[in-house]
Design goal:
The complex is a heterodimer. By secondary structure, chain A is mainly β. Chain A has strands at residues 4-7, 10-13, 19-25, 32-38, 42-51, 54-57, 64-66, 76-78, 87-94, 100-102, 106-110. In chain A, strand 5 and strand 6 form a beta hairpin. The N and C termini of chain A lie far apart (35 Å). Chain B is mainly β. Chain B contains no helices and 12 strands. Chain B has strands spanning 3-6, 11-14, 19-21, 23-26, 32-38, 44-50, 56-59, 62-65, 75-77, 86-96, 99-104, 108-113. The chains are: A mainly beta, B mainly beta. Chain A binds chain B through residues 4, 6, 31, 33, 40-43, 45, 48, 50, 56, 58, 90, 92, 94, 97-105, and chain B through 32, 34, 36, 41-46, 49, 51, 89, 91, 93, 98-102, 104-107.
C-alpha cells in the first residue's frame, strides 16, 4: 500500500538534545512538508521541499532543520535551539490536484 | 496573505442531527479548497475538495460547495453519526512562485452523542 510512514510514534527528548523524526513516502511525490500541530493552533508549516536536494523554510523554521537527499525521505531534526518543542508533528506530501497526504504523526515530549 | 477562517468548536450534536461547519477564505488568486478530517491521535486525511467556483465536493455524506461570491466552502452533512466525531480542517492551496503552500484553518472539533 502506498502512503507515508513516520517514526517513532512517540518520542521523548531531554533538554539540550537534538532529535530526528523520520518521514518516508512511497507515493512517488516530489513535494513534501513538515507541520507542527498544537492544541487549538491548527497546522503550522515548518519546512517544505518541492524537489530532491532543495527545501525552503516555512512559517516556524527556527530551531528545526531538514534534509532531502532522496525523493522518498524527508527527516526533520528538532534542535536544542527550539525552546518549546513539545507538540504533534505531521509529515505530508503533495499529490495530484494539490491534495496533501499525511503520515500518522509523531508526538514529541520534552522531559 | 492567504487565510482560512473556520467556526470555533467544539460543535456538539446528537446523532442524526444536521451539521454545518462554516469556512471562509481570503486568497489573492483562485485556490483549490479542501476539507480534511483528523481522528484522535492520527494524521489528517482528505474528506473532499473542489477546484473551481460552483464545484461541489462530496464524500461519505459530507458536502461542500465552492462559493466564489462569498469566498466560502461550508461543510454540511444531513445526518451525523457518532463515528463522525473528529476534528475538521478547511484548507486552501494556491500556487505561489512555483510552490504550492497550503493554508489551513484552525480546525473545528465535532462531538456527536448517541
Amino acid at each position: 500500500d502506498g502512503g507515508i510512514t513516520q517514526s517513532p510514534k512517540y518520542l521523548f527528548r531531554k533538554e539540550g538534545q537534538n532529535v530526528t523524526l523520520s518521514c518516508e513516502q512511497n507515493l512517488n511525490h516530489d513535494a513534501m512538508y513538515w507541520y507542527r500541530q498544537d492544541p487549538g493552533q491548527g497546522l503550522r508549516l515548518i519546512y517544505y521541499s518541492q524537489i530532491v536536494n532543495d527545501f525552503q523554510k516555512g512559517d516556524i523554521a527556527e530551531g528545526y532543520s531538514v534534509s532531502r537527499e532522496k525523493k522518498e525521505s524527508f527527516p526533520l531534526t528538532v534542535t536544542s535551539a527550539q525552546k518549546n518543542p513539545t507538540a504533534f508533528y505531521l509529515c505530508a506530501s503533495r499529490g495530484i490536484g494539490d491534495t496533501q497526504y499525511f503520515g500518522p504523526g509523531t508526538r514529541l515530549t520534552v522531559l | 496573505g492567504d487565510s482560512v477562517t473556520q467556526m470555533e468548536g467544539p460543535v456538539t450534536l446528537s446523532e442524526e442531527a444536521f451539521l454545518t461547519i462554516n469556512c471562509t477564505y481570503t486568497a489573492t488568486g483562485y485556490p483549490s479548497l479542501f476539507w480534511y478530517v483528523q481522528y484522535p491521535g492520527e494524521g489528517l486525511q482528505l474528506l473532499l475538495k473542489a477546484t473551481k467556483a460552483d464545484d461541489k465536493g462530496s464524500n461519505k455524506g459530507f458536502e461542500a460547495t465552492y462559493r466564489k461570491e462569498t469566498t466560502s466552502f461550508h461543510l454540511e452533512k444531513g445526518s451525523v453519526q457518532v463515528s463522525d466525531s473528529a476534528v475538521y480542517f478547511c484548507a486552501l492551496s494556491l500556487a505561489s512562485g512555483g510552490s504550492y503552500i497550503p493554508t489551513f484553518g484552525r480546525g473545528t472539533s465535532l462531538i456527536v452523542h448517541p
